[in-house]
Amino acid sequence: MKSEMECARCFCDSLFHQLGKLDVSPETKIAVTQKVMRMIAGADFNQPPPLIAAKVNEIVSDFIGKQDRFRKEKDLSTQCARELLESIRPELEKAPDRFEAYVLLAIAGNIIDFGVDCNFDLGTAREKIIHALSEPFDHAAMKLLRKKMDEAERILYLMDNCGEAVFDTLLTGLYPGKITLAVRGFPILNDVTRAEVESSGFRDVPVIDTGDATPGISFAASSEAFLEAFRTADLIIAKGQGNFETLCDDTDRPVFFLFRAKCPVVIRRLGGVKPGSYQICHVNVEA
After folding, report:
1. Do strands 207-209 and 235-239 pair parallel, antiparallel, or not at all (unpaired)?
2. Nearest to 139 by CA among 262, 280, 247, 258
3. Which of 54, 53, 45, 39 is nearest to 2 (CA)?
4. How many degrees, rounded to 5, is the angle at CA 115 between CA 281 and CA 192?
5. Buried (b) or exposed (e) across 30-39, using 16+ Cβ within 10 A?
6. 286 with 144: CB under 8 angstroms?
């Protein structure tokens, strides 16, 4: 998916959010900002937004080091999600269709996103996630997703943000022995890396990483191990907008995308869906 004019604002918002978290001199912040602005001005907007966002992160890291700048938010998101999951388990036990409930919760967890929304409030997320089970969704797409997950022998599950990963344990737990988790190779925003898999609640599930720090999938930068897993999976489940933006036009593999439509660029790409709507869409999947 190509970047558009609105993406430049998001790149800048992310930059200023990261700079606000750093204890560095004003001169360093100005130097970083100037370099990022020059990069954006010369960027190839035929690329998906996450590939340009990765360059913003790389520039910041060049100045201040490859520290995990969202460590606090990651831990807080994971803690909040685990507490919330325990509090709603009684409601989950009453769900008439556990598969549907777990898919909706996996999408609802995408509410927890410090990377897209700098003013994100974990307290507000609690109520929204609890109401996830009553959100409208594409029933035909849900039915096809169930069919393909049941039929597949090897499912590659592309993770997104910390916090929402806790809810992913429910859906992946329905398919023991089939799932391999894929996480980011290095810290990028609040995305899941190997360091957060266990604390999110996963046990005895194979894990690979992309080998790079793109908030999506960059085939050019990915490790050979990840590319092999991607090529050989029977089915790929991709969580979050970043994975959608990088894969929707750039793969011949069967992929289901599970995410909330958060930004105007993605909303237009989906034909003008409702902002915040729950999306279950796919490419290269036969009915």
Report:
1. unpaired
2. 280
3. 45
4. 75
5. eebbeebeee
6. no
| pTM: predicted TM-score of the whole model, two decimal places | 0.94
How many angstroms separate the CA atoms of 9 and 27, rounded? 22
Give the three-class secondary structure for 258. strand
In sequence order, the 6+-apart residues with CB closer than 8 A to the CB of 154 are 178, 180, 232, 233, 234, 235
Q: Taking Cα atoms as reference points, which of 230, 224, 264, 240 lies closest to residue 189?
A: 240
Element (H, E) at 255: strand 255-260
Q: Which mean pLDDT values do the consecutive 10-residue runs of the chain (287 residues) have?
A: 94 90 91 96 96 95 86 88 86 90 91 58 68 87 98 98 94 97 95 97 97 96 97 97 96 97 94 94 94
Q: Do strands 179-183 and 207-209 pair parallel, antiparallel, or not at all (unpaired)?
A: parallel
DSSP 166: H
- Please name every residue paired with 208 in a beta bridge, in sequence order, or none if there are none: 182
Q: How many CB atoms lie within 10 A of CB 160?
A: 30
Sign, CA dihedral 212-213-218-220, equals: negative
Residue 108 host element (H or E) = helix 98-108
Q: Would you say 231 and 266 are in contact if contact means Cβ atoms under 8 Å apart?
A: no
